[in-house]
Amino acid sequence: MLQQTQVKTVLERYYFPFLQQFPTLQALAHASLDEVLKMWEGLGYYSRARNLHKAAQMCRTELPKSAKELELLAGIGTSTAHAIASFAYGEALPILDANVKRILYRYFALKEAKPSELWSKSYELLDASNAYDFNQAMMDLGAMVCTPKNPQCPLCPLADACQGVGSPHDYPTPKPKKQKPIKTPYILVYQHGEKFALFQNHKRFLGGLWGFKQSDSKPSKSKKIGEITHHYSHFGLKCNVLLSSDAIEHKHWFSLKEIEALALSGVDKKVLALLVV
DNA sequence: AAGGCGTGGAC
DNA sequence: TGTCCAAGCCT
After folding, report:
1. Nearest residue to B4, CA vs C1'?
2. Shortest CA–C1' contact from A76: which nucleotide?
3. A45: nearest nucleotide, CA–C1' criterion
4. Nearest nucleotide (C1') to the CA of residue A179?
5. CA–C1' distance A253–C8 (Å)?
6. Chain A residues 144-163 within 7 Å (CB) of strand B
7. Please, what are the domains in chain A?
8. Nucleotides of C under 7 A from a protein CB
9. C1’ B3 / CA A205, Å
10. d(CA A250, CA A96)
C-alpha cells in the first residue's frame, strides 16, 4: 500500500479496514479479486492490489523470510523486499524509496544516477549493524529534514559530510516535464428501468475495476447529464456524460444499491454521483 | 530502458 | 489555481 503513496493516506483510510477484511495471508489468498479491489477502491495503482492478491496465493501458508525469496513475489521489488527483511527479519539491507533517493542525490551531489549507482551508494552508507534503525532514520530524515521543498540543511545531522549542503535543489538535475495529453471520450450511461450497465476492465489500466462505458463516438439518442474532468498520472480526461436508454445487449446490469458493492475508479465514482443527485 | 500506472496531500 | 510528489514495480 505504501508504494508511491503517503503513509498518512494508507494509515487513515486503508490499512486497518483491509486487515480487518483479510486478517491472514490465507484469507487474502482465498478472497476474490473483486473483494480485494473493493477494499483498495480509491487508493490507486490497482496493480498493487492485483499483485498483493497474487502474492498471497503464491505464498500458500507463510510469508518468506529472506529478501531473496520475498523479491520473487508479485509486486515486491528490491526496495520492498529489503524493507520487509530489515524491519521484520533483521537482515542488513538498505532500502531505496523516494526519501532515500533524494538524500543520496544531495549527499553525494549527484546530478543524475542510474538505479544501480544509487543502490551502490545506499549500501555504502548503510550501518549494517543496525539496518532497522538506519532505514527508518533515512526515511524520517527525508520526510522531515531533507524534504523536496524547503529542506532544512542547518538542522541536518549529515550537514558536515553532505556534498550538497546549502544547494540541495541542484541535485538531481530536474527532468524536462512533458505535458500530459487530454482525452475526450464520451461516457455512456445505459439505463434500463432501475438498472445500469457496467463493464469490468480487462486490460492493465484500472484492471478488474468496474465502470461505465466509454466511447469515442456519440450515440444518436442520448441526453447529456454532466461533465467530468479527471487527471491520471499520465493523461487527463475531460468528457461529457450521456444518459441513454438504448436496449443494448449486455450481461451486467446493476441497481444503484448493487453498484455500491463494486470497485469503481475515481472517474466512475464521479459519474455515479451525477446519477444519485 | 523509458513509460505506464491513481489518487490525494501539501503548498 | 496549478504543480509537485509520495515507504516503487512491471513491462
Report:
1. A234
2. C9
3. B6
4. C3
5. 36
6. 149
7. 98-131+146-177 (no CATH), 182-276 (3.90.79.10)
8. 3-10
9. 13
10. 47
A105-110 contacts: CB < 8 A, separation 24 or more? A105/A164, A105/A171, A105/A172, A106/A146, A106/A151, A106/A162, A106/A163, A106/A164, A106/A165, A106/A168, A106/A171, A107/A158, A107/A161, A107/A162, A107/A163, A107/A164, A108/A163, A108/A164, A109/A163, A109/A164, A109/A170, A109/A171, A110/A171, A110/A172
Residue-wise pLDDT tens for chain A (277 aa)?
999 999 999 999 999 999 999 999 999 999 999 999 999 999 999 999 999 999 999 998 899 999 999 999 999 999 999 999 999 999 999 999 999 999 999 999 999 999 999 999 999 999 999 999 999 999 999 999 999 999 999 999 999 999 999 999 999 999 888 889 999 999 999 999 999 999 999 999 999 999 999 999 998 889 999 999 999 999 999 999 999 998 899 899 999 999 999 999 999 999 999 998 7
